[in-house]
User: Fold these one by one.
Assistant:
Number 1:
Amino acid sequence: MTPTADSTTNHDTARDRIHPYRLARRVWVLCLLDAAEQAGLTPISSEHFHRLAFLANCLSPAYELEPIDGKIYKYRSGPLYPDVQWDLDRMAVQGLSHVQGIRQLRTPTGVTLFVANYSMLAKGIHTLASLVKAPQARRQYQFLLEVAAAFGSLHGDSQETAALNDATYNDPDIATGDIIDFAEWQNRNFSVKTTESFDKLVPYNLPLGKQDRLYLYFRYLDRLVGAHA
Amino acid sequence: MTAEPIGGGAIDAIVKRTAEQDVGSLPLTSVGGGNSALGFVNEVLTYLRGWIQTHSSRDRSQDPTTLFLSCERPRFDADILGAQPVELFKIDRSLPLGGLILATARLHSVAQVKPVNATTISLQQLHALVAQLGAGDRPAVFFFPNDLRIVVCRDGLNGEEAFIEYSISEIGVASISEESVDRLLSDYHRFWLSTPSCPVRLWHDRTGFVPIEDAEIEIERWLVPLARLKFNESIIVKELALLSGRADVALLPRPGAATAGSAVIELKVLRSKHFAKDAAQANDYPAAENISGIKDGIDQAASYRDEVHAQLALLACYDLRKDTVAETVTGLQSTADTRSVGLRHYPVFNSARAMRRASPSAVSSRSRPRQSRG
């Protein structure tokens, strides 16, 4: 979802070199898109991608990884990362990913967004193969593969609303229009807390690994959304 | 500010329910990690278990053969075959199967090459489709719905030796009993382990009788998905950490489930040779160590059973020695009886010829007709 009047974010331009942080973010976005590809989720709508990105960000500490962004503006319509959107579109122009189905969407609040569907191109896959040779990128990629696979395991309607029902995004103390800070200055990450709570609740004190907690969390979201339905 | 505990009675109840109901049925391997064949087969078996239960009352005699083929990027593969990706598994299990199904690591989204309602597709057609895809080396699982057979092709359709047939007619057994656990172990041995052509590879150098380095772990790894298939209501875990050690495989009742029975299974490999990368340099494995290993296994099985209050304890000995004589195991029967541990002996042959030459009674043996501890 590309805001039509987005000029506030300080993106890279043709004149300045890409900042290492932005490069890391772009690699992260490419990893996540490929993870969605491998989970059979592509072409993925921008709306779904931002929701998946939020869950991946929020759950990163469960894999002892730094989130690419530890805060997010709480929209009623769901998570939206303008920077991630910039990277998505930029990569499409670079020929790393494919964009299709571009259309306008008018939100209930009157904002007009461009939405589209994204998928990987062969060039993106080959580029990624080189990028994930770095150990840190490899760890991130492995985590994102699991997140996307777990996200893909949600029932269709749960995929729509899982992020909105996420323990952190749905924190009742954070009103719509406020910033959810789960890893920047504060530590209000109830999603990770929930993953940790499984250890005390599983029968026979069965040992859980990071992957087990992650999947349990997504199954919890699936149940939660089902309960709401 | 620190995070506060999650709250809300209804939310907590869902978290608790998830922990109780879903543990023990989670993926066995990482996406994109090692042992992708194990993860893939586990997911297919899990899916088929649900599918068969959903269709338990239906006449499956006309249902077509299905081939599940592992793929990393189903959309790319589907493009090659001119197929439309369909989201089949994550919706429900009510749809009929059939044709070639390109399955992701978690089977959540697939491309089905033939229409979902296809009624006939021959094996030759399936092979041709896989060849067209250039995917003969990918893990694959055939499913024959009419007689509930599966064929696992661990190394893909090109790896002829790795084809194995397995009947899943007894899936979803309600309770864990000595008979049902024995059936699991004997089927597992017969179809998955007994010869070098079986899917579970235990030989580093079969002519020299040198097993792989972690033979017990390999046996345990593939036993778990089959146990989950058979005892679908129970919690099946491997390497259960206990005060007295780690139970190789534990079959435990799920809280709130109507199923009964519980068991711990210890696994031991009897060897003629130690592992060595250079098989020619492998040292002999002393016979006394094999006997000592069985004795330890009996003690471990009994201790783990008592610690988790299981009803059954079994020690399964997989015999990879040159001379797979059951007497090594049966000679310790009285020790096992004292601890109420069921002792089982499963010879693993280094060739199909060796298996044929073995007397029928040597193929597998239960050293005791029944054992149970209420």
Number 2:
Amino acid sequence: MSYHLPTDSTQNSGKKTLHHYVIGFGVAVLLTISAFSLIEMRLLNDTALYISLTLLALTQFIVQSVCFLRLNTSPQGRWNLLPYLFMILIVIILMGGSLWIMYNLNYNMVN
Amino acid sequence: MAHTLTNIAHHDSESNDIFGFWLYILSDCILFATLFSTFAVLHNSVFGGPSIKDLTNIHSIFIETMVLLISSFTYGLAILNLYKNESKKVMTWLSITFLFGLTFVFLELSEFIHLTLDGNNWQTSAALSAFFTLVGTHGLHVIIGLIWMLVMLLQLSVFGITPVMSKRLTYLGLFWTFLDIIWIFVFTVVYLMGAI
């Protein structure tokens, strides 16, 4: 009895390799350390801190998605990518909308 | 020929199953997005109490972050050994991942207990309610992941690596990476931006 081990299809978007994990892990560690050291050292002003922290988080989000979740644009990977992009759209509408409404609400209450 | 056809059918249903789990994970991301919005709206509503900035310790959060990141990596090593069909090594890496995950939960719980004992619980202010709900929901997911990992270890020791087991381990791998990705935003939005 031989099992059909899903060596080539364990993830729809393809097989993971050590190469991907090591690169993903290394870059994620670097991004995390730089985010924490930005707060620790305080070389930037507040606005620049907010912007750089957001950029670091988004970069790490993309790096981990590509290296650990193996998100890609191959024909099979596209099936995973499309709902993923839709999730991001929903999240942007949800968060942007909530913050926009609540900001205006606070503004009108105070004034 | 018939054999090949069954194999293809099997292959397809397997990708469909994993795709279904992928959709669950994406919907869980939306759950977290609502909690993040709540936190973003309420994080300044401290009701005269201490702000989150005064309550958190960046150094312990850094250790938590690293521990979770390493556990994500070691889970990846378990998956690579799964491809090579080496049951023993999969179990070793799973156990290591479990220990790192347990360390994370332990650090987070000790932070929560510390906060609560100082009188800053989820009833103190809207900001702390939002804080405990967001970070606590993530912690709860990690605890569920740990229980799941224990079950996987037990099942691996009984059944060894079978197609069903490798599918389950793939689900857990997606779930575990998802938790690490959510944590990126938790430490950035709650702790680092909170500390500015």
Number 3:
Amino acid sequence: MSSIKIRTKRLDGILQIRTLITHPMENGRSKNKKGHPIPAHYIQELIVMHNGNIVATTLMAGGISKDPYFAFKIKGGEQGDKIVISWKDNMGNSDTAERIVV
Amino acid sequence: MFHLSRRQFIHHSLTLGNALLAYTSGLLPPVLANMVWKPSHFAAQTLEQAIQQVIGDQQLLETRKIKLRLPQVAENGKVVPITILSSLKNVENVYLFVEKNPFPHIANFQLAPGTLTEITARIKMAETCDVIVIIKDSDNEYYITRQQVKVTQGGCGG
């Protein structure tokens, strides 16, 4: 199952794009129950695309909350438009998901 | 029914493979090129250093045209919702900082021309302090605003 959920909503000439991503977002300074440090593991780059064009690129580190949630708004947005969201993390993992605007 | 011939199947697999390779190696898409994650972006340990890194020797202009929707009190510093709104024109980058976090630079949003300056995220806050947002427009002007959040229980671990 994808780590990325995408929801879109058309609002009077504006398209709202919301995403919720399953990710630990460990900043590398927390410890587990045994007192061992938990290695840093966080998303570094999130890209939101609308019909093949980038609408927002977000760079981040461990200061974003676990299971990141982001919302953006763009001008336009029609039924059938395609939203693609991808992320890459510091361990070389990545994921991508798409959703068609209804 | 599955109509792809073996040749078509291989062709499609290769195309997808190439696209993934291009993405992971940073060749695609073009806008990515000027926004590459670097460790140094988020390594500054004081707000001053973090801001310095973003703006260089440019001046910061205080503005009322950036609004931050933040709780006055955050009971859980691990998850503090923020919405950044601005009526500034031609916004290119939105930089988000938390004053007293061990690494104050939280995120850098690069927006395309058709993207509104209305961004929501959830951030970690170690303790009561200011949340700072700097916006850069296409004229390379930097605007700043700040707002305090009281944090009851810090959320940076360690």
